[in-house]
Design brief:
The chain has helices at 47-53, 78-91, 104-115, 146-152, 157-164, 170-186, 197-200, 222-230, 246-249, 251-262; strands at residues 7-13, 16-23, 32-36, 57-61, 97-102, 120-126, 208-213, 234-239. With 265 residues, the protein is of the alpha/beta class. It has an eight-stranded mixed beta sheet with strand order 1-2-4-3-5-6-7-8, with helices on both faces. The longest helix is centred in the last third of the chain and has 17 residues, at 170-186.
Length: 265
């Protein structure tokens, strides 16, 4: 996208080296928006990231143990990741950021919001894990092959093919396997949700937007309502013709929802 220039850097937080991609509108200061990626890792560049970076100072940190960040052998919980990302924002001297969490990244974002309830401008959770769905179960990585799991995130398999290719590369297959193993380390029992998080979200003061694809086969839509009920200032938006990976399947629709919610500066 014209006017969007991405940079790569390594930032140390809590003794862990985190890979960070960052971009924003050329020639002007903008609000910081931190995008927290899926449990399948992240590609280096996506149309959704570009769409947000046209308006905001967008930061996409790779979670510890995922994609290009260092793996801490001691890490055993998702809240540990949230603490490290909080440390990253402190290292970068970023305050009053907006958080956009995608799937597993939504769980991390929710944990971060619960840690410092008044230290965010906005919270956006897209198909977020982290809360046990009242109806249905979160798709289990342990009994789903990592290619089938990645494909399950899409309503339309042609959209998957556009993002990853009909036959994903060996490098991509290896990355999915690495990410899967890290997820087992930190989100296994209970699987992909926290028993305490719903009780901690009541302290969050930032306005919150909960977004779900209308055909999410990974996290049942019943979890969306639990998030809306737990967060004091939350509203729900359903994106049509989309699976779990709304950011990759309907990037323009999701970006518009977020820009309208956060506002333009």
């Amino acid at each position: 996208m014209a006017g969007v220039d991405w940079t790569d850097s390594t930032v140390e937080a809590g003794g862990i080296k985190l890979h960070l991609k960052r971009a924003g509108p050329a020639g002007k200061k903008a609000r910081s928006v931190v995008v927290l990626h899926h449990e399948t890792g992240t590609l280096d560049r996506l149309p959704f990231y570009d769409a947000l970076a046209a308006h905001y100072d967008v930061l996409v940190p790779h979670h510890p143990g995922y994609s290009r960040s260092e793996r801490p052998t001691w890490m055993r919980s998702v809240r540990d990741i949230a603490v490290l990302h909080r440390g990253l924002l402190s290292e970068l001297k970023i305050k009053d950021a907006a958080l956009v969490g995608l799937g597993f990244g939504g769980w991390i974002a929710a944990e971060m919001a619960s840690m410092a309830p008044a230290d965010l401008s906005h919270l956006v959770l897209v198909g977020a894990m982290g809360i046990k769905p009242p109806q249905g179960d979160i798709l289990d990585l342990a009994i789903t092959g990592y290619v089938d799991y990645a494909r399950a995130g899409f309503h339309d398999q042609k959209a998957f093919d556009r993002v990853y290719g009909a036959e994903p590369s060996i490098d991509q297959l290896e990355m999915w396997d690495i990410c899967r193993e890290m997820s087992f380390r930190i989100a296994w029992k209970p699987y992909m949700y926290s028993q305490t998080l719903p009780h901690l979200l009541g302290a969050v003061r930032a306005p919150s937007l909960v977004v779900w694809g209308d055909d999410d086969k990974v996290v049942p839509q019943s979890a969306a309502q639990r998030y809306v009920e737990a967060l004091p200032k939350a509203k729900l938006e359903i994106v049509k013709v989309s699976g779990h990976c709304v950011d990759m399947e309907q990037p323009d629709a999701l970006a518009k929802l977020i820009v309208d919610f956060i506002g333009r500066e």
